């Protein structure tokens, strides 16, 4: 047992929730963002302004999402170069064979392939062959064996959430908005979760609402302490910047979370806000305005498919209200109440910018 522990330590193989549930998942979201999300944004801009080369570039970027996710995971797991580069094939196979639940298949399979690749790396004089061959055979083999099942399971969970949201838009709007919003602020990836579950439709709209409530909420209610730098870094960047302050005083999390509980059902019941763009956009909120671009892309897709006649003023009012106006107003109101009763004190929301 001691020798095994020594071997794992030497190979930097660490079986922990942080390594796999935070580091790997977060990196996967970045890989997905740098491929599918950027590709979608470029394609959308290209289509709207008839810039064909942007559409083509966007399509290229979107096509390599599986490889990008797997390489990002390998990077987070500190995989050596030969393992890291071999994960391109692993990610492609897992994402392709995983179907709609491809991202979740990539997460599990890339982790296993990367760790096994790390285990054999530089253990033989034929490392240039042994390491990539082992990584690719293990990863692609697992993809062929189980990626389809993982993808189906992920899709089933996502479909169940979307079905429940359609059936009970008020209750599920609250639940989905609050949970995905909380995940966005935690050091895990709400984007990867939404992508893995293929969370779109009304449930995707509720997820967008929850993420916006956290990002815009923290940005606006901490403006006194953090000024414009904090407004931009949290409102267009990530509310995760507040995690250190949340650990010190968990009560600062109450205002944006309450805001998400309110905006979620408003999104699903009043504005019927749906995310029919890419699923990962559901978990991005106002980060680079990806959530809003995703909703807009969904509108365009729906019009092209004939399921929507046109983008209305009510659509725009709903998107702006859910994304920016309501989160800002509600979070500030709740924050001021907590400040008055002493639950939130001066500089509790201060960032080290």
Describe the structure.
With 353 residues, the chain is mainly alpha-helical. The protein has two domains: 2-154, no CATH class; 168-340, no CATH class. The chain has 15 helices and no strands. The chain has helices at residues 2-10, 17-48, 52-63, 65-76, 81-98, 102-120, 127-167, 169-185, 190-196, 201-221, 223-237, 243-248, 254-270, 290-305, 313-340. α2 runs antiparallel to α3 (52-63) and α6 (102-120) packs antiparallel against α7 (127-167). The chain is globular, with a radius of gyration of 21 Å. The chain starts with a helix and ends in a 13-residue tail after the last helix.
Q: Pick out the low-confidence regions.
A: none
Secondary-structure element order, N to C: HHHHHHHHHHHHHHH
Number of domains: 2
Distance from N terminus to C terminus (CA atoms, Å) equals: 46 Å
Shape: globular
Total number of helical segments?
15
Taking all residues together, what is the mean pLDDT? 91
- Please state the CA-atom Rg, rounded to the nearest Å: 21 Å
Structural class given helices, strands, pairing?
Answer: mainly alpha
Helical proportion? over 70%
- Largest sheet data: none
- The total beta strand count reads 0
Strand content: under 5%
Concise structural overview:
By secondary structure, this protein is mostly helical. Helices cover 76% and strands 0% of the residues.
Features:
353 residues, mainly alpha, globular
What's the helix and strand layout?
Elements: H1 2-10, H2 17-48, H3 52-63, H4 65-76, H5 81-98, H6 102-120, H7 127-167, H8 169-185, H9 190-196, H10 201-221, H11 223-237, H12 243-248, H13 254-270, H14 290-305, H15 313-340
Helix pairs in contact: 2-3, 2-4, 2-9, 2-14, 4-5, 4-6, 5-6, 5-7, 6-7, 6-9, 7-8, 7-10, 8-9, 8-10, 8-13, 10-11, 10-13, 10-15, 13-15
């Amino acid at each position: 047992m001691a020798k095994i522990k020594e071997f794992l330590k030497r190979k930097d193989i660490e079986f922990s929730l942080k390594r796999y549930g935070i580091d790997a998942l977060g990196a996967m979201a970045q890989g997905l963002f740098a491929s599918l999300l950027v590709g979608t944004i470029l394609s959308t801009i290209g289509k709207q302004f008839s810039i064909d080369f942007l559409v083509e570039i966007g399509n290229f970027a979107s096509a390599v999402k599986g490889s990008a996710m797997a390489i990002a995971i390998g990077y987070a797991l500190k995989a050596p170069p030969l393992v890291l580069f071999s994960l391109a094939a692993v990610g492609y196979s897992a994402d392709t064979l995983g179907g709609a639940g491809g991202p979740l298949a990539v997460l599990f399979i890339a982790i296993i392939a990367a760790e096994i690749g790390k285990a054999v790396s530089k253990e033989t004089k034929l490392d240039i062959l042994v390491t990539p061959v082992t990584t690719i055979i293990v990863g692609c083999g697992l993809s062929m064996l189980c990626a389809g099942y993982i993808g189906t399971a992920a899709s089933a969970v996502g479909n169940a959430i979307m079905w429940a949201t359609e059936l009970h838009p008020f209750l599920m709007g609250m639940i989905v908005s609050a949970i995905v919003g909380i995940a966005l602020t935690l050091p895990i990836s709400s984007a990867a979760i939404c992508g893995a579950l293929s969370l779109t439709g009304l449930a995707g709209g509720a997820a967008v609402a929850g993420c916006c409530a956290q990002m815009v909420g923290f940005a606006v209610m901490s403006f006194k302490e953090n000024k414009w730098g904090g407004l931009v870094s949290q409102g267009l960047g990530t509310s995760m910047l507040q995690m250190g302050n949340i650990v010190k005083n968990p009560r600062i999390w109450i205002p944006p979370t309450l805001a998400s509980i309110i905006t979620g059902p408003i999104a699903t019941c009043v504005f019927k806000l749906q995310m029919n763009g890419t699923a990962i956009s559901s978990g991005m909120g106002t980060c680079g305005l990806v959530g809003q671009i995703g909703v807009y892309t969904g509108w365009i897709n729906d019009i092209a498919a004939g399921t929507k006649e046109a983008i209305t003023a009510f659509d725009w009012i709903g998107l702006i209200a859910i994304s920016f106006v309501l989160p800002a107003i509600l979070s500030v109101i709740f924050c001021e109440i907590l400040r008055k009763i002493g639950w939130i004190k001066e500089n509790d929301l201060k960032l080290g910018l």
